[in-house]
Amino acid sequence: MSRSTAGLLLIASGALFIGCAPESKSSGDGAPSSAPTVVSKIGTPDTSFTAPSGAGKSAEAEAKEIFANRCTPCHGSKGAGDGAASPGLTPKPRNFTDASWQSSVTDEHIEKIIQYGGAAVGRSPMMPGNPDLSAKPEVVSELRKLIRSFAK
Fold first, then answer.
1. What is the reported pLDDT for 148?
2. In 3D, which of 111, 109, 113 has the Cα closest to residue 136?
3. Which residue has better confidence, 151 or 1?
4. Beta carbons within 8 Å of 53's beta carbon, 6+ residues apart
5. How many CB atoms within 10 Å of residue 62?
6. What is the pLDDT of residues 87-102, one digit of tens each?
7. Which has the least CB within 10 A, 100, 115, 124, 131?
8. Closest residue by Cα to residue 45 from 13, 27, 20, 14
9. Measured between alpha carbons, how far is 55 from 132 in angstroms, rounded to an integer?
10. How far apart (Å, rounded) are the C-alpha atoms in residues 80 and 136?
11. Is there a contact between 55 and 47 (Cβ–Cβ < 8 Å)?
């Protein structure tokens, strides 16, 4: 088979596949549904679609999940700076249970570190930022509240 024939077959099969996708569903009021339909096989909707992480969760629940996944390895589950990765870090991760540190920083300072990392406030660049949270101020606020809750 020549390359041009193979190319035409590829284009034709792509057009056939696109043409077989199901039509958009109506929400009952005549307007098309805005929910995406994932097609696993031609014409068969895939009902196993899961929403992206964070979608549908409260800001508090998302903040707790983020802390557990991103912060705990260094800061520890109780915020004492004793996470599994902390022995190999210089400087050591911040101990959020330290009352003198808690009283020395503003909420804005904590939120800035969460979003932009330690280097953004003149601290260690080992503390990474979370730029994906810049569009989620409510989650950043909940993370700050969680950090404040470790004060003793």
1. 98
2. 111
3. 151
4. 65
5. 20
6. 999 999 999 999 999 9
7. 100
8. 20
9. 14
10. 26
11. no
- Mention every residue, 6+ apart, whose C-beta is less than 8 A from residue 103: none
pLDDT in tens, 35-84: 444 444 444 444 443 444 556 789 999 999 999 999 999 999 999 999 99
- Beta-ladder partners of 103: none
Q: At what angle do helices 137-149 and 107-116 cross, to 10 degrees?
A: 120
* pTM exceeds cut of 0.85: no
Instruction: Name residue, tokens 């549904």.
Output: 33
List of E strands, 4-142:
39-41, 44-45
**Ramachandran area for residue 57 (φ above 0: left; ψ -120 to 50: alpha; else beta):** beta
Phi, psi of 44 (to 5 degrees): -115, 110
Specify whether the CB–CB gap between 125 and 109 falls below 8 A: no
By 3-state DSSP, what share of the chain in percent is helix, strand and coil, each rounded to 5?
50, 5, 45
96 in Cβ contact with 133 (< 8 Å): no
- Of the candidates 99, 72, 69, 68, the residue with the CA atom closest to the CA atom of residue 83: 72
